[in-house]
Write a structure and sequence with these properties.
single chain; 496 residues; alpha/beta; Rossmann fold; N-(1-d-carboxylethyl)-l-norvaline Dehydrogenase, domain 2; 24 helices; 47% helix
């Protein structure tokens, strides 16, 4: 089977949109699956729907061996968007043609400098992992290239400034809060350390836009099953070593002034990308609704006998429990438009019901204590403050979390607790050592003592939760119901 490239694609009979020639308008630090299934997808749609007419050059944030298939495939790759939309199984294919090439900064630094001083360049995007946006005092201006990503960016932007070119828009996609602002701070520190001058500093902070962004799309990655690969090659008429899979849902929030939306090509392209004055509320929505839903139902669902997320969405009790928690307890205390939150929540069921992903409940359960504190506890406290009563489903989810950590503890191993489900099979509970030690020490405690001691554990929750009126009694009642009737029946009691 011939390797994908423009000529092979033409011979394959592919009828979708393809852009073969265009100027390089974006420099992208990060060549991984996520960026290619998310950022490059949106810019590829912008080429088709908004006439952006641009290409992207990908850069390995840390120079390592560059795969030959980028050159062999002329930057082309197939993106498969798979999942569920409005309850219907969806499997879409698109050949992405926005990528021009992929460069290694250690080998191709002079090429990067040429791209950086081009009049065509408009955007710099990045996803260098959470560890990528850090200030590194060991990175120096004389290094070619400097060691860290912010240092590389500073040196390249300095070349653009010296060439008298206009500023660029920088879109940071790393999974940290205030990613754009932190990157800008790192660049300014390098400017000061390297004594690059006040005029350059002014250009950086006034001519360039460092935008914090919030990204949301699950990207399982490359297809690895040999039988599936063979089937796709036969159907496509080409071999593709760069193919990538992402979920159908995808949304990108970009923090910036209102005028930024007019500069970006996304509004005209009609894609799910939004310029907002502050991404923080949208991150809160994602954490409280999407992530909070997982943490809210997974421990109880696992105890009830379920193993993967999709099956939970086909269990009426668990799905309805999750939806009641989201629509009646989480959304009412979020600082965003209620209708927008409900639309986002409605998509959660589709995302969790993805027929292409077997998302294991046990993998989600890792570090559930810290997750419950970050994702669910703030909602519980805000609900109590707003309505003067306890949120039924969130209280039950807290009891279920305790049950998950304490159901027939058999052993405290080096990295886990070994517990036994009601069905008789053992499972590993994995968390911070102090959490595992706490539950192991309470192995023989009564449920009344367990609930009291868990709630008063400030290390777990950052406060004594026994101070929340009625919470201790409510959690004990729910834990007792889980122990005696089973987790699914306990969930069902919240729906009566």
């Amino acid at each position: 089977m011939e390797q994908l490239n423009y000529e092979v694609l033409k011979k394959s009979g592919y009828t979708g949109y393809v852009l073969e020639q265009a100027p390089v308008r974006m420099l992208q630090f990060g060549e991984g699956n996520f960026m290619r299934a998310f950022v490059d997808y949106f810019f590829d749609i912008a080429n088709e729907k908004a006439g952006w007419n641009g290409k992207a050059v990908l850069v390995q944030p840390v120079g390592r061996h560059l795969p030959a298939n980028y050159e062999e495939q002329q930057g082309l790759y197939t993106l498969y968007l798979r999942g569920s939309e409005k309850g219907l199984k969806t499997d879409k294919k698109r050949v992405i043609s926005v990528v021009d090439s992929c460069l290694n900064p250690k080998r191709d630094w002079s090429l990067l400098e040429e791209i950086m001083i081009s009049d065509d360049l408009e955007y710099i995007t990045s996803n260098t992992t959470e560890a990528g946006i850090v200030y590194d005092p060991e990175s120096s201006f004389d290094q070619i290239p400097p060691a860290s990503f912010p240092a590389k960016l500073t040196k390249l932007l300095y070349e653009r400034y010296r060439a008298g070119k206009k500023g660029v828009i920088i879109l940071s996609c790393e999974l940290i809060d205030n990613n754009g602002r932190i990157l800008q701070e790192c660049v300014n520190r390098h400017i000061a350390d390297w004594k690059l001058g006040g005029d350059f500093e002014t250009w950086i902070n006034e001519a360039c836009s460092f935008c914090s962004t919030l990204v949301d799309r699950i990207v399982p990655g490359a297809i690895r099953d040999p039988e599936e690969i063979a089937g796709l090659e036969a159907a496509n008429g080409y071999a593709d070593e760069l193919g990538v899979v992402g979920e159908v849902f995808g949304v990108w929030y970009i923090e910036g002034p209102a005028g930024l939306a007019e500069k970006l090509p996304f509004e005209k392209a009609g894609v799910n990308v939004h310029v907002v004055p502050d991404v923080a509320p949208y991150k809160k929505r994602k954490v409280r609704i999407l992530n909070g839903a997982h943490t809210g139902f997974v421990p109880g669902a696992y105890l009830s006998g379920e193993n993967i997320v999709r099956d939970c969405m086909n269990n009426d009790t668990i799905r309805n429990f999750m939806n009641k928690m989201l629509y009646e307890e989480v959304i009412p205390v979020l600082p965003l438009d209620k209708t927008d939150c409900e639309v986002f929540a409605a998509a959660v069921t589709d995302r969790f019901n993805n027929p292409f992903v077997d998302h294991q409940l046990l993998s989600i359960s890792l570090n559930s204590t810290a997750k419950w504190r970050a994702r669910n506890l703030p909602t519980l406290l805000e609900y109590v403050e707003a309505f003067g009563e306890l949120p039924t489903c969130l209280v039950m989810s807290l009891a279920a979390c305790m049950a998950f950590y304490s159901t027939e503890i058999k052993e405290r191993t080096e990295d886990s607790l070994i517990c036994v489900r009601p069905a008789g099979d053992s499972y590993k509970v994995q968390d911070d050592a102090y959490v595992l030690d706490f539950y192991a020490a309470h192995k023989d405690a009564s449920d009344k003592t367990l609930v009291h001691d868990v709630l008063k554990n400030i290390e777990m929750w950052g406060m004594d939760l026994n101070s929340v009126k009625g919470l201790e009694e409510a959690v004990l009642k729910d834990l007792t119901r889980i122990r005696t009737q089973g987790a699914e029946a306990a969930f069902a009691s919240c729906l009566e």
